[in-house]
C-alpha cells in the first residue's frame, strides 16, 4: 500500500522528486568532502609527489613528502573512495592516473586543485558572514587568510596563459602599441602577475599597478625586483574615490582583472578610468560572465559556486568597506549600465573559449 507522505505544511509530497533531491544532496556532500581533500593535497604538495604515475605505499609517500604517515594514509583512503587514486589492496599501493595528474598539478592544463582551495578559504568566514545576515555590514579583507595567494594562483592560470594570444588582441591595436611603448595601469592588481608578465614582454612600455592590499603590493614589489623588472611599479591605493583622484589623461591602456564587482564604489572607479585614459586610450575589463537576473543563470556552468563566492567574499568585502556590495553575479546588463554611466561610449563584450567564468569588455571613452 502506498503511504501518503505529507510535507511539514500538510501538503502532499512528490516522493520521486524528494528522492532525486536526496540523491543529489548526498552526492554534493561527498563531492564537497573530496574538494577539501584535494585542497589539502595541493597545499601539502602531495599531487606533485604522485604525478609521475608510480604506485606508492602510504609509508613511501610519507617519506617522499616528509609528512606524517597516519595523515597520508587517511588522505589516500579518502582519495581512493573518491576515485581520484587507484588502490591495489594486495600491495597496499596507491597510484594517481596521468589523466588525473594532468588536472591536479601545474602543467599544460589548468590545475583544478587550485580552485578547490576556495571551499576551505571561504568556510573560514562562515561565522562572520552569518553575523552579516543580521547587521549587513559585510566581512573585511583581513578575515580572509591566504586570499591574495589563492587569487594569484587562480588568475595565474586563467589570465596569464591566454594574455598574449587571446586577451590583449581583443583590442586589436594594443599589442602593437605595447611593443612601441605606452603607459599601462592595472587596477585592483592584487599580486600583479599580469602586469609583470606584460612588463617582461614589452620593455618599451611602462606599467603601474594599484591595489588596496598592503600584503599583495609588498609581494608584487618583491617579485618584480626578483625578476629584475624596472618598467613596472606598484602602489597601495584605495580606489574608492578614483573618480576625483585619478591622474588626468595619463594612461594609454587600463586593465582590470576580476576587480570591478567587488569594489566599494565601482562607479567611482570606472569614472576614474575614463578620466585617466588618454583620448585614444583603451580599457580592457575581465569580469564575471552572468546575467543580472537570477532566472537567466539557471544553466550557468558555475552558477551555484559563483553565488557562494559572492556571499562569502565579493559582496561581503565590498559591504565591509561601506560599499555597494554589487556581488559577483552583477551581470552583463548592470555592467553595461555602469560602463555607460561612467562615460564609455564604445562598449564591446567578448567571451573566450578558455574561460567559462568571465566576460572580456573592451571599452573606449
Ligand atoms: C578578485 S581580486 C583580483 C586581483 C587581481 N586582479 C587578480 O586577478 O589576481 C580583487 C582585487 O581588488 C582589490 N580591491 C578591492 N577593493 C579595493 C579598493 N577599494 N581599492 C583598491 N583595490 C581594491 C583587492 O585587494 C583585490 O586584490
What's the structural blueprint in terms of helices and strands?
Layout: H1 15-43, H2 46-50, H3 58-65, H4 69-81, E1 86-88, E2 93-95, H5 98-104, H6 112-116, H7 118-123, H8 126-135, H9 147-158, H10 163-167, H11 174-180, E3 183-187, H12 193-201, E4 206-211, H13 214-226, E5 232-236, H14 242-245, E6 251-257, H15 266-276, E7 277-288, H16 303-320, H17 331-342, E8 346-350, E9 358-364
Helix pairs in contact: 3-4, 15-17
The site of S-adenosylmethionine (SAM) has 20 residues, from helix 9.
GO molecular function, one term: methyltransferase activity
Keywords: Methyltransferase, Transferase
Domain S-adenosylmethionine-dependent methyltransferase Rv2258c-like winged HTH: 37-105
Describe, in short, the structure shown.
The protein has helices at 15-43, 46-50, 58-65, 69-81, 98-104, 112-116, 118-123, 126-135, 147-158, 163-167, 174-180, 193-201, 214-226, 242-245, 266-276, 303-320, 331-342, and strands at 86-88, 93-95, 183-187, 206-211, 232-236, 251-257, 277-288, 346-350, 358-364. It is an alpha/beta fold. The chain folds into 2 domains: 15-106, Winged helix-like DNA-binding domain superfamily/Winged helix DNA-binding domain (Arc Repressor Mutant, subunit A); 122-364, Rossmann fold (3-Layer(aba) Sandwich).
Q: Can you characterise this structure?
A:
With 365 residues, the chain is an alpha/beta fold. It folds into 2 domains: 15-106, Winged helix-like DNA-binding domain superfamily/Winged helix DNA-binding domain (Arc Repressor Mutant, subunit A); 122-364, Rossmann fold, CATH 3.40.50.150. The protein has 17 helices and 9 strands. The chain has helices at residues 15-43, 46-50, 58-65, 69-81, 98-104, 112-116, 118-123, 126-135, 147-158, 163-167, 174-180, 193-201, 214-226, 242-245, 266-276, 303-320, 331-342; strands at 86-88, 93-95, 183-187, 206-211, 232-236, 251-257, 277-288, 346-350, 358-364. The strands form 2 sheets. A 7-stranded mixed sheet has the order 5-4-3-6-7-9-8, with helices on both faces. It has a two-stranded antiparallel ribbon with strand order 1-2. Helix 3 (58-65) crosses helix 4 and helix 15 crosses helix 17. The termini are far apart. The relative contact order is 0.09. S-adenosylmethionine is lined by residues 151-152, 155, 188-190, 211-213, 216, 238-240, 257-259, 262-264, 321. S-adenosylmethionine binds next to helix 9. Residues 179-289 form the Methyltransferase domain. Residues 37-105 form the S-adenosylmethionine-dependent methyltransferase Rv2258c-like winged HTH domain.
Amino acid at each position: 500500500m502506498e503511504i501518503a507522505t505529507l510535507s511539514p505544511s500538510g501538503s502532499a509530497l512528490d516522493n520521486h522528486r524528494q528522492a532525486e533531491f536526496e540523491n543529489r544532496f548526498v552526492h554534493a556532500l561527498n563531492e564537497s568532502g573530496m574538494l577539501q581533500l584535494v585542497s589539502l593535497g595541493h597545499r601539502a604538495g602531495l599531487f606533485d609527489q604522485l604525478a609521475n604515475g608510480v604506485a606508492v605505499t602510504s609509508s613511501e609517500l610519507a617519506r617522499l613528502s616528509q609528512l606524517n604517515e597516519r595523515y597520508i594514509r587517511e588522505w589516500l583512503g579518502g582519495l581512493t573512495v573518491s576515485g581520484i587514486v587507484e588502490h591495489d589492496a594486495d600491495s597496499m599501493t596507491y597510484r594517481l592516473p596521468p589523466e588525473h595528474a594532468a588536472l591536479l598539478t601545474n602543467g599544460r592544463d589548468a590545475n583544478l586543485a587550485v580552485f578547490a582551495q576556495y571551499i576551505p578559504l571561504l568556510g573560514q568566514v562562515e561565522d562572520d558572514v552569518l553575523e552579516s545576515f543580521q547587521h549587513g555590514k559585510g566581512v573585511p579583507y583581513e578575515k580572509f587568510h591566504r586570499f591574495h595567494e589563492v587569487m594569484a594562483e587562480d588568475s595565474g592560470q586563467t589570465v596569464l596563459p591566454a594574455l598574449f594570444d587571446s586577451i590583449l588582441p581583443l583590442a586589436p591595436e594594443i599589442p602593437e602599441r605595447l611593443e612601441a611603448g605606452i603607459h599601462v595601469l592595472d587596477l585592483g592588481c592584487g599580486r600583479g602577475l599580469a602586469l609583470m608578465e606584460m612588463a617582461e614582454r614589452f620593455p618599451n612600455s611602462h606599467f603601474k599597478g594599484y591595489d588596496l592590499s598592503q600584503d599583495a603590493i609588498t609581494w608584487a614589489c618583491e617579485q618584480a625586483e626578483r625578476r629584475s623588472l624596472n618598467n613596472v611599479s606598484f602602489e597601495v591605493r584605495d580606489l574608492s574615490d578614483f573618480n576625483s583622484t585619478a591622474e588626468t589623461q595619463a594612461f594609454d591602456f587600463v586593465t582590470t582583472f576580476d576587480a570591478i564587482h567587488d569594489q566599494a564604489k565601482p562607479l567611482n572607479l570606472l569614472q576614474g578610468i575614463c578620466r585617466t585614459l588618454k583620448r585614444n586610450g583603451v580599457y580592457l575589463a575581465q569580469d564575471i560572465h552572468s546575467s543580472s537576473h537570477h532566472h537567466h543563470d539557471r544553466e550557468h556552468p558555475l552558477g551555484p559556486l559563483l553565488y557562494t563566492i559572492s556571499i562569502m567574499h565579493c559582496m561581503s568585502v565590498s559591504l565591509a568597506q561601506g560599499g555597494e556590495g554589487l556581488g559577483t553575479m552583477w551581470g552583463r546588463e548592470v555592467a553595461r549600465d555602469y560602463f555607460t554611466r561612467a562615460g564609455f561610449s564604445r562598449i564591446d563584450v567578448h567571451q573566450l573559449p578558455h574561460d567559462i567564468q568571465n566576460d572580456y569588455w573592451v571599452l573606449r571613452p
